């Protein structure tokens, strides 16, 4: 009771001693409040710990996802480089296409259909030399 009175700002010396029943009731109330306070404090600490653990998991998941995206970007950069190299080799292919177009023009001038090949010149008796 003296501690309670001094916390409230009253003179603690002026408190009369309590009888046994009132002291037991006040002690039980104090013990109950302390138990509730301890349980609430424990819940708060456990919730704080749970939240921190969850934040660490999320952060780790983000890091793993970020690393996976980086690896994908690196892989795609290598593929792009390979495709660029192949595209640089394409002018040789276009030269081949130009030759094919020229062959078709020559065939058209000789009146040879595209699918047919020129017949072999006759090589036997009666062929013109």
UniProtKB/TrEMBL annotation:
Coiled-coil ranges per UniProt: none
UniProtKB keywords: Coiled coil
Gene Ontology cellular component annotations, sorted alphabetically? mitochondrion
Classification via InterPro entries: OPA3-like
Q: Which domain of life is it from?
A: Eukaryota
Q: Does the keyword DNA repair apply?
A: no
**Which Gene Ontology biological process is one annotated for this entry?**
regulation of lipid metabolic process
Q: What does this protein do?
A: May play some role in mitochondrial processes.
* Family membership: Belongs to the OPA3 family.
Task: From the Swiss-Prot or TrEMBL record, give the protein name.
Answer: Outer mitochondrial membrane lipid metabolism regulator OPA3
- According to its UniProt entry, this protein's organism is Molossus molossus (Pallas' mastiff bat)
Its lineage reads: Eukaryota, Metazoa, Chordata, Craniata, Vertebrata
């Amino acid at each position: 009771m003296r501690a309670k009175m001094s916390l409230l700002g009253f003179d603690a010396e002026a408190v009369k001693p309590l009888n046994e029943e009132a002291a037991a009731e006040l002690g039980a109330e104090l013990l109950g409040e302390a138990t509730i306070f301890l349980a609430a404090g424990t819940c708060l600490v456990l919730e704080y710990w749970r939240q921190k653990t969850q934040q660490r998991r999320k952060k780790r998941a983000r890091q793993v996802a970020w690393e996976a995206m980086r690896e994908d970007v690196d892989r795609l950069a290598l593929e792009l480089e390979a495709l660029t190299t192949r595209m640089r080799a394409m002018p040789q292919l276009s030269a081949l296409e130009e030759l094919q177009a020229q062959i078709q023009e020559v065939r058209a001038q000789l009146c040879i259909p595209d699918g047919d090949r020129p017949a072999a010149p006759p090589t036997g008796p009666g062929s013109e030399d």
